[in-house]
Amino acid sequence: MKILVLNGGSSSFKSSLFDVTGKEGAAAPNPLWEAHVDWERHPGTAEIEIKSAGAVSNRSVPVKAPIDALGPLMEMLPHRDEIRVAGHRVVHGGRAFRESTRITPEVRAGIAKAASFAPEHNRLELEAIDCMARILGPDAVQVAVFDTAFHASLPPPAYVYPGPYEWLGQGIRRYGFHGISHQYTSRRAADILGKDLAAVRMITCHLGNGCSLAAIRDGVSIDTTMGFTPLEGLMMGTRSGSIDPGIVIHLVRHLGLSAAELDRVLNKESGLRGISGVSGDMRTVLEAMGRGDVRAQLAFDVYVHRLRSETGAMIASLGGLDALVFTAGVGENSPQVRTAAVEGFAFLGVKLDAAKNAQSPADTDVSMADSAVRVLVVHTQEEWEIARESFRVVGGVP
User: Are strands 85-90 and 101-102 parallel, antiparallel or unpaired?
Assistant: First the structure.
């Protein structure tokens, strides 16, 4: 079954085409076709990179809005007449959606309702759903795979905020995000270790521009760092992560910041970018550190401090730790971050193999043979996880 996957973000869009049989192993197969669209680098232009049959091609398309790039992108899509299923990453499922599901008018309405929690993402995903209905035709099945669904297993003490109890009835609770990545990464890590996922107490560290941890026990998420929105938790590329709520009150009361201004400051002007003054990209921050930039060094140190602190909290939730897994852009490609993070847990007997770690090998155990905790680097494959979930939802029959 050929399944088209659409993974939209606030600044880029990934699409992949898979031929799924349901007999694949834990590792992701190579897609038949994949595309990456970036519209933040050059405003008003969508930069499209296509990979197909081993060849790479690039194209620039003028756009007024991100969704405008989908039409030209689909013109380059092979096997178009054979595609009967489209799987969409939907960031926020709210209280209504606790697992992947076929998209119906009722489901679409529910996704629209949850857009108030994640407006940038859910609205783009709704546009992609509508666009696919036009391009693939009314007979195509569309599936929503929710980033929050993996964390539906959180117990009440982990998802209830210590505010007024009425908040819970209003949908104000911790949902967790990056669930598609945490789901794939945890299953792949267990496969690398040669163990049943349910038998491994694991922390998956999704460290990209957005960052989150998930504590996984008995094969399910029991705690995570992101909450009501993707703003909670770790320090990120441009997001602050958790801060004292009194800061927000202070900024409103004494500096007169509006909701829109707070949104911009906390989501776009904080994190690595806010502290370093250089960039929200860890690679650029590390380069600045190498030149002796004091603020870049501080940004790195704060990032690591918060990472260690939140990892310690996840270990407490798990009651111990068997495996620590790093994934996503920073997690997969920064030996410095992995080294600094693991050093904080040397007292638990965690030992990195420095030579292996320096190579940033994908899907590899980079810990020493006598390490009390296994440390893995896993290349996250969100698109493949969306394809697998879509196949499961349709039961192999669209």
Answer: unpaired
Query: Using CA atoms, how far apart are residues 27 and 290, in angstroms rounded to an integer?
Result: 36
Q: Tell me the catalytic residues.
A: 147
Tokens of 140: 């195509």
Rounded Cα–Cα distance for residues 86 and 130 (Å): 11
End-to-end CA distance of the chain: 9
Looking at residue 142, what DSSP letter applies?
E
Q: What is the pLDDT of residues 71-81, one digit of tens each?
A: 777 778 888 78
Contact, 18 vs 33, CB < 8 A? no
State both tokens at 46. Answer: 């969508």
How far is it, in rounded angstroms, from Cα 286 to Cα 297?
Answer: 8
Burial-class residue 272 by CB neighbours within 10 Å (0-12, 13-18, 19+).
buried
Task: Select from 184, 163, 188 the least CA-distant residue to 173.
Answer: 163
Number of neighbours of residue 223 by Cβ within 10 angstroms = 24
**Rounded Cα gap, residues 392 and 215, in angstroms:** 25
Q: What is the pTM of this model?
A: 0.93
Which pLDDT tens digit goes with each residue over 105-156?
A: 999 898 888 877 776 677 788 888 888 888 888 778 999 999 999 999 999 9
Place of tokens 């806010």: 274
What distance in Å separates the CA atoms of residue 156 and residue 52, rounded to the nearest whole number?
A: 45
Estimate to the nearest angstrom the gap between the alpha carbon of 294 and the chain centroid.
30
Q: 3-state DSSP: the chain helix, strand, coil percent, rounded to 5?
A: 45, 20, 35
